[in-house]
Amino acid sequence: MKKFSGVGVALVTPFDGAGQVDEESLREMVAYVTDGGVDYLVALGTTSEAATLSWQERERVVEVIAECNAGRLPIVIGVGGNNTAVVLEDLEELPYLRHGDAILTVAPYYSKPSAEGLYRHFKAIAERSPLPLILYNVPGRCSVNIGAETTLRLAREFENIIAVKEASGCFEQATAIAAGKPDHFLLLSGDDSVALPFISIGAEGVISVMANVLPYECSMMIHRALEGEFAEARAIHYRSRFLYKALFEEGNPAGVKAALHAQGMIRENCLRLPLCPVSDELYRTIQAEMQRM
After folding, report:
1. Are strands 40-43 and 75-78 parallel, antiparallel or unpaired?
2. Most exposed: 129, 157, 236, 286, by fewest CB within 10 Å?
3. pLDDT tens digits for range 178-230
4. Can you say whether the dihedral through the CA atoms of 273, 191, 10, 45 is positive or negative?
5. Residue 244 annotated in active site
6. Strands 75-78, 161-166: parallel, antiparallel or unpaired by DSSP?
7. What is the pLDDT of residues 98-133, one digit of tens each?
8. Collapsed DSSP state (helix, strand, coil) of residue 195
9. Neighbouring C-alpha atoms within 13 Å toward the C-beta of 89
10. Is 3 annotated in the active site?
């Protein structure tokens, strides 16, 4: 499943002034990141505000992405939750999964299951999933960490579990996964700011937020690093360090939507509650960093 190495972009969902999905901006986003050199598209991830989208809106978002993509790049679709039975029903019933090449499935949030509970949750999903699975470990959002032992146990037992989006930021954990993973399994960074050092210890790519706004730079940095050209990759990483910080200072996707609005890629800087736009001060900071980059 090397087609999920490199750069996957966690697409935002643009909204119009009335708070509805802005399909025109979404189409422009897909074309922009594709032309910028990303390797695959990620729909309905955290950055998409999927938690605030209705079932009908999620279906339409995936359809728009698939129509605009026209088969050019693989598509990963987010399907997850903290009710295992409901996730299994979704895997059987969601019609938009026909557009996907893989599923990104997040650790169960709020419930805080044990390591054995996490294993059983993902085991059940792997046994029923119609598509290959990418595990999503993001302790900062889910309040539970998928430890390296659990990740490796799942990777070794299920060939259809093909990767982990590792957003713990823990190099010790990432190193353990890289050192012990089977050949079919990919370690992917879940954070832009550590994607380059993660590659140095064995990661094979990133699922990126920043690639929404700077797809060419993100793709160049990761592709050069994977080719062993770390000097050029480091130069891009160093130039991006202030933008990394600014994009996440007041939460995601508030920062990246501010950047896209400043860039003119989306017409309205709108989010759905409980999220809200960044402060005016941070907007100006992001705008200045975009101009500098």
Report:
1. parallel
2. 157
3. 999 999 999 999 999 999 999 999 999 999 999 999 999 999 999 999 999 99
4. negative
5. no
6. unpaired
7. 999 999 999 999 999 999 999 999 999 999 999 999
8. helix
9. 6
10. no
Q: How far apart are CA 64 and CA 27, in angstroms?
A: 7
Separation CA 193–CA 185 (nearest Å): 22
152 φψ region: left (φ > 0), alpha (ψ -120 to 50), beta (else): alpha
> Using 50, 70 and 90 to split pLDDT, how confident is the model at 1?
low
Sorted by where each begins, the domain ranges of the chain are: 2-227
**76, two tokens:** 């990963």
Q: Which of 136, 244, 257, 283 is catalytic?
A: 136
**Mean pLDDT of the chain, nearest integer:** 97
Residue 88 backbone dihedrals phi, psi, to 5 degrees: -65, -40
Pick the CATH number of 2-227 from 3.30.420.240, 1.10.260.30, 3.20.20.70, 3.40.228.10: 3.20.20.70
Measured CA to CA, the distance from residue 198 to residue 186 in angstroms comes to 12
Burial (CB < 10 A; 0-12, 13-18, 19+), residue 180, is: middle
